Amino acid sequence: MSPMQIALVAADRGGVVRLSELLTCGASRADVRRAVARGGIARVRDGVFAHPTADALVVLAAEHGGRVACVSVLRRLGVWLLDDDDRLHVLLEPKGRRHVHTGCRCVDHRDAGGAGFGIVPIERALVQLQRCVGDESFFAAYESAWRQGRLSAGARAWIREHLPAGKRWLVDVARRNADSGLESILRLRFHRLGVAMRSQVRILDVGRVDFVVDGILILEVDDRQNHDGESLRHRDLMRDARAAAAGYETLRFDYAMVIHDWPTVERAVLARLERARARSRRTA
Ligand SMILES: [Zn+2]
Ligand SMILES: [Zn+2]
């Protein structure tokens, strides 16, 4: 086989190919050596080669021994992630070896089913995320991917089926219209506390608010992107005043509070709720 033909086989396989596949396609070992010498393919590690235009992350995962997986797939797609984990997560064959390479900090995954090279589909990456990082990360990423239009009904059903049975409720309470990952996290935590909240509620004279709890308490969550410039601060104060006039109380939280100081947020909400409930019991 010519170097050009060998390069085409590699491109055809998604950019990375095993020596054994090239030999099966009719190349000799001498052909492969020539293709490497002419730059048609590059050696990734023993017995694995990449096309020059192959995706760098796919090549790195192949160097480690498998396929781009989990967090790494979702980060690449711009799905909202709770944790700043920039390590490469790699799906290895169930009994496949990990190959430590220069700068290797990879996180290994071994699922049932094959690995090969390339990038795992988003639905499989989400199921991996639940096992690897946890429920909250999964829930927020799932709602984010759904909001981005990346999860078909078939993909959502596949995810539900492949989650552990005790985790399927996460999918059942998820919604497509969460405004931000932070909002997803907050809704999940209050769901666990047995506090029901409506999200993205439109209130006359106030506009759309993030959450309304018990029909009386408004919760607003400022995501990282919302810088508190003067005009935004003024807008928030106006909203709070209008909400108060309409009979609501407002509590505001930011990213740091929800993520790093959850007990403070929880106590504030539960205390306000208790007070509001006591008041409505007295007036009833
Ligand atoms: Zn992982
Ligand atoms: Zn590695």
Automatic annotation (TrEMBL):
Residue ranges of domain AbiEi antitoxin N-terminal in the record:
4-49
Identify one Pfam family in the record.
Answer: DUF559
Residue ranges of every copy of the DUF559 domain listed in the record: 188-273
Q: What is this protein called?
A: Type IV toxin-antitoxin system AbiEi family antitoxin domain-containing protein
State the organism of origin.
Answer: Microbacterium fluvii
